[in-house]
Amino acid sequence: MEHVDARQLWVEQITLTNFRNYAYLAVQAGPEPQVLVGANGAGKTNLLEAVSLLAPGQGLRRAAYPDLARSAGDGSWVVSARAHTHLGPVDIGTGLVTDATERPGRNGGRIVRINGAPAGGSGALAEYVELVWVTPAMDALFMGPASERRRFLDRLILCFDPSHRTRVGRFERAMQQRNRLLADGVRDGARFEGLEQVMAETGIAIAAARAEAVAGLASITAERQKRDPASPFPAAGLAIEGMLEADLERLPAVDVEEAYAHVLAANRERDRAAGRTLDGPHRSDLLVAHAPKAMAARLCSSGEQKALLLGLVLAHAELVARRRDGVAPILLLDEVTAHLDEVRRAALFEEILRLGAQAWLTGTDQHAFAALAQKARFWQVEDGALTGFFAASA
Questions:
Q1: Which residues pair with 290 in a beta bridge?
Q2: pLDDT of the chain along its 394 residues, tens only?
Q3: Do 223 and 285 belong together in one domain?
Q4: Residue 80: which CATH number?
Q5: Which residues have C-beta within 8 Å of that of residue 6, sequence separation ≥ 6?
Q6: Would residue 158 count as lying in a domain?
Q7: Residue 219's domain spans which residues?
């Protein structure tokens, strides 16, 4: 193995038990890129999904935890890993149990253990592992609903602000309770005030975090464009569109919070008629444009959209690395070569190596990863089993 930077974030070993199509799998990885090749349905994405569960949340597919269990198993599953983090090596275990002697995770969620000790929920993983992923489902990110772009941005924010997930959760719970009161015909203002105050406090914090993240990404994107004007990953024009974000540009946060609470109180009847809350960070949108063409991303070709998406992810990885003393997040890139020509593929691999990030990449065609020969660890995936092999230079 090549010399390993002690600061690098990487997964050294990962073990799957009764997870998706794997009865049992143990993978000994290295800090270099890990390339998984094999036919569709072999289990490549399943392994990436397992790695994604080393971070908070439901993983890259956002699947219900019971759905992660192997169909021929007993309904339980386990993912365990040895990861090298900024806090040193750490053993992470997570899973779903059916044994009545084992307490299930909080709220019926997955169990998480860190160095053998219960962690109290997946949120604790944010202190150790930072992940960013790109999946085929995200190819339509710029064409789909605003909720998908908000989720994408919020996932990026988690890498340098783990508490962002908690704020989003508190806001959504308070909003749901407010919506329920509206639906039930409640008109007692006292029953709304506490919920609306929580929404105002967390809503402003969410909007501010998103605005800061977009500004940081825009700055890195501009630097990347200046550094390499001919980059096959075009600079993205970025903006966050929303009532709270617009107010934060011209008013102190405390004033925006007070104004938002007033808006919520004043518009209860309107929201009651609509059947939902119409104002807040849950209505914001991430606007992305192909900067050199001055064209909205949704109007670009599929290849240009994929290049814009990857450019954003690479810019984010660089932003995280700068804020983490040079430590880039782990990248999970599923079927990443789709819609990328040979030039863009080579440029992507070069960027991954420059960042020093451990990346897990999947594809059906080994030749698409020829530029990574002798620079990455290659694995053949077949019927729930992995076999390492040597990839010669093209």
A1: 236, 295
A2: 445 566 799 999 999 999 999 999 999 999 999 999 999 999 999 999 999 999 998 999 999 999 999 999 999 999 999 999 989 999 999 999 876 445 555 445 799 999 999 998 888 999 999 999 999 999 999 999 999 999 999 999 998 898 999 999 999 999 999 999 999 999 999 999 999 999 999 999 999 999 999 999 999 999 998 998 889 999 999 999 999 999 999 999 999 999 999 999 999 999 999 999 999 999 999 999 999 999 999 999 999 999 999 999 999 999 999 988 889 999 999 999 988 899 999 999 999 999 999 999 999 999 999 999 999 999 999 988 999 987 766 5
A3: yes
A4: 3.40.50.300
A5: 84
A6: yes
A7: 142-289
Residues 168 and 195 in one domain: yes
- Dihedral sign (CA 132, 136, 139, 145): negative
* 297 within some domain: no
Q: Of 271, 289, 307, which closes a domain?
A: 289
pTM of the model: 0.91
379 domain residue, yes or no:
yes
Same domain, 283 and 150: yes
Instruction: Clarify whether residues 81 and 167 are in a common domain.
Output: no
Contact 85/92 with Cβ under 8 angstroms?
A: no
Q: Which two tokens stand for residue 313?
A: 């992810």
Tokens of residue 233, six digits: 């990953």
* Residues 6+ positions from 305 with CB-CB distance below 8 Å: 139, 141, 142, 143, 297, 298, 339
Give the CATH number for residue 221.
1.20.1050.90
**Spatial separation of the C-alpha atoms in residues 96 and 196, rounded to whole Å:** 35
265 burial (CB, 10 Å; 0-12 / 13-18 / 19+) is: middle
**Structural domains in the chain (count):** 2
- If asked whether residues 121 and 156 sit together in one domain, one would say no
Distance CA 100, CA 220 (A): 50
